[in-house]
Design a protein that fits this description.
2 domains, globular, alpha+beta, 6-stranded mixed beta sheet
Length: 348
């Protein structure tokens, strides 16, 4: 998420930035792999007290009321087990209780724990939690879109946000939040998740949250200033720590490979790495692979009705390179623009 403070003073540029990044900015926790912009009713009470979490136990996002679930539609506030798990998650998160979070979120590494602790210092609680979900790809699994309004300390306006979870039973038969990288999931699960992200009511909910978040920023300058300055720095520090840890791990792996296979093999591996990364300048006709489920846009900007979504591992042929965006043709011959960060030259 790249910020230019001067650009964000322009309402049009600020609105565009918020639409592109609101999920990351306001998500309860951006470390969860399935965050897309992506669990209340007669739900069980959370095991930890939080005076502002879940004031409205039957909250439904206006304009997106409960649907019956008969044709893959969302069900909302309809499963006590999911409701309780999610409400506990938000309670633990707002209080920085990483010990309890670790019991319901896995894996949950040290950098993620530090991020939660840092963010919780500024969070008073969560209100109007609405739990939208659909059945997942396997028995007792669910794809869950959680609407929530974050109340930051000393800021009047609540910030709407949306967080997505992949939830299923563990070996003991208890529900938990699966926090593995999406690419490490089974191929059929990845495909199911990508299809979920592209469904009409999922996109509709995300768009409503985006609009609500943009309105909150325009309404309350204190909220805007807090997110752009304080909140952004917390995430910047987190991503820096993750990158450092990844680099250290890669260096350790390279050293191990050198000792076991010789320096020439290690050099060959290091030389091959850049070609697998997203970004760069691509010649017309280059074949790229999607590394995430991203919107395919009608033009080189995050505006307009999406034409569809990419699917991890699918191939896309470059038709034009336009800075941060690339125009591609998919396997089904459809064409559109995708941000370069979601494409790479080697199959993931």
């Amino acid at each position: 998420m790249n910020l230019n403070i001067n650009d964000l003073q322009d309402p049009k540029k600020r609105g565009r930035f918020l639409k592109d990044n609101v999920a990351i900015i306001i998500a309860a926790i951006a470390i969860l792999v399935l965050v897309i912009v992506l669990i209340a009713g007669s739900c069980g009470s959370p095991t930890q007290s939080n005076p502002t979490a879940g004031d409205n136990l039957n909250y439904v996002v206006p304009g997106l009321e409960a649907k019956g679930g008969t044709n893959g539609d969302y069900k909302v506030n309809a499963d006590d087990r999911i409701n309780t798990l999610v409400r506990n998650y938000f309670n633990y998160f707002s209080s920085g209780d990483v010990g309890e979070l670790e019991k319901i979120v896995a894996p949950f590494d040290e950098n993620q724990k530090k991020l939660v602790k840092s963010l919780s210092e500024y969070i008073e609680g969560y209100q109007n939690i609405a739990v939208y979900f659909k059945d997942g790809p396997t028995q007792n699994s669910y794809l869950v879109s959680v609407y929530h309004e974050t109340k930051f300390k000393d800021i009047a306006t609540r910030a709407p946000g949306l967080t997505t979870f992949y939830i299923h039973n563990n070996d003991s038969g208890e529900l938990y939040i699966d926090n593995r990288p999406e690419t490490s999931l089974d191929p059929e699960v990845i495909e199911y998740i990508n299809n979920f992200k592209a469904e009409e009511d999922v996109i509709e909910l995300a768009n409503k949250v985006n609009s609500g978040s943009a309105e909150a920023f325009d309404k309350d300058k204190a909220l805007y200033d807090f997110v752009v300055n304080t909140y952004q720095k917390i995430y910047t520090d987190y991503y820096t720590a993750v990158a450092d840890a990844s680099a250290a791990s890669a260096a350790a792996s390279s050293a191990s490979a050198s000792s076991s296979e010789g320096s020439s093999a290690a050099s060959s591996s290091a030389a091959a790495q850049p070609s697998s990364q997203a970004g760069g300048t691509y010649a017309v006709g280059t074949t790229l692979y999607a590394n995430d489920g991203a919107f395919v846009r009608p033009g080189p900007k995050a505006e307009g009705t999406p034409l569809g979504k990419t699917k991890v591992g699918k191939t896309y042929v470059v038709l034009a390179d336009e800075g941060e965006w690339v125009k591609v043709r998919a396997e089904d011959k459809t064409e559109g623009y995708v941000k370069k960060e979601f494409l790479q030259t080697t199959k993931p």
